[in-house]
Amino acid sequence: MRLGLEIVAVTGLPEIREGDDLGPLIASGAEASDVQLTDGDAVVVAQKIVSKAEGRTRDLAGVEPSERASELAHGLGKDPRLVELILSESVRVVRAERDVLIVETRQGWICANAGIDASNVPGGETVALLPVDPDASARRLRAELAAVADVSPAVLVADTFGRPWRLGQTDVAIGCAGLEVLDDWRGRGDQHGRTLKATTVAVADELAAAADLARNKADGVPAVVVRGAERWVTSDDGPGAALIRRAAEDDLFR
Amino acid sequence: MRLGLEIVAVTGLPEIREGDDLGPLIASGAEASDVQLTDGDAVVVAQKIVSKAEGRTRDLAGVEPSERASELAHGLGKDPRLVELILSESVRVVRAERDVLIVETRQGWICANAGIDASNVPGGETVALLPVDPDASARRLRAELAAVADVSPAVLVADTFGRPWRLGQTDVAIGCAGLEVLDDWRGRGDQHGRTLKATTVAVADELAAAADLARNKADGVPAVVVRGAERWVTSDDGPGAALIRRAAEDDLFR
User: What was the ipTM of the complex prediction?
Assistant: First the structure.
């Protein structure tokens, strides 16, 4: 018997616009992609389409940069209007050096540019912000999938973050519903009966990373189904990706 | 047509001992797990079995802690002999606070405890160190697979690292052969013709994370095959996971 997972791209979704209900669109996209969604699946949705559906896009032409944003932008070589948006979406600047602006977002994520970017957003100067509450977005999408397709898969909202110390970016979960986001093995024994000291599997982030392998940054496959992760799928929505945030007082790098 | 990947656990490997050739063991394990290895596959191997095969285990009973190790261990609440090993495997201490010791290893990785741990290692006080050169380990394993099974899949050596800012650990690649470890989309256009500014997919790390989902920390599935990633598999061994290391002068968090 094979033990494992399957990762399938959901293709053929239309360009998402403000007000679109993602649940029906993803359900029909899955069907067209030959994926019959089940309760044990994990549906990983790109933050970008969630933001678009929720109207979380901004035209830079309408942004008036503050003096602080202008100063910061000058030092970083960034567009002052973009920096204004980044600051308005942040509670704290973690690093502003060279051309890098790393902040703590209102949602509690530490990432570059508050997760704001322009790729795969139509319109010359339009950028997408993170959803206001990505866990709520995931819960809403899960409820929509239950309503239109009578399934309760786990739902993840994934975004692409850089990492200190390592080059390249990986996808991580910024929103979740119906998933055991952290699988805590501490205290359980290994195969030799020795206690595992510090292994808590970041399941949600590993699912997001796995799903990214089925994407293509250019055509922006907006949804991916991971099958075989049913041991982490829960019937209740649970605490969501908020659980992944390390408390500031426990963090050695901010 | 379905677009996607498949992740399959290779089970049934024996307990690995120093001097074991992993290639033949993984090839026969794959066969027994109903996986016919192909050139387009990525074989993700747990660091632990590579270290065991290479004799990179140490019995703490034989370690004499230095004064510096003893002092550091006292402050951190750790075993001085373990701290001695950690320091001997490191070029620099990045953080030593509370019970956390984060170092830069001789291999150039920044991680807790220099990647040394005791889980899934038999023997009451035996711990496993990282392979001396995990990229060389991956190349060797790839050559062994070519010799015994006439295939040249990508080979990755994966370890479990924590992250700043996010709770839980994910698997990352510390060694690679035959893989495009970073897939650089910078300069290429998105679906709206807008240039992608800063997206370099950390393919090796995402493959390692994906493979971890097919594991189980207790029984320690030591090898996982990821199928469907052939677009990143290369015929030459390439620069390996060393490419992922961010240069100290480009890093804002060390």
Answer: 0.95
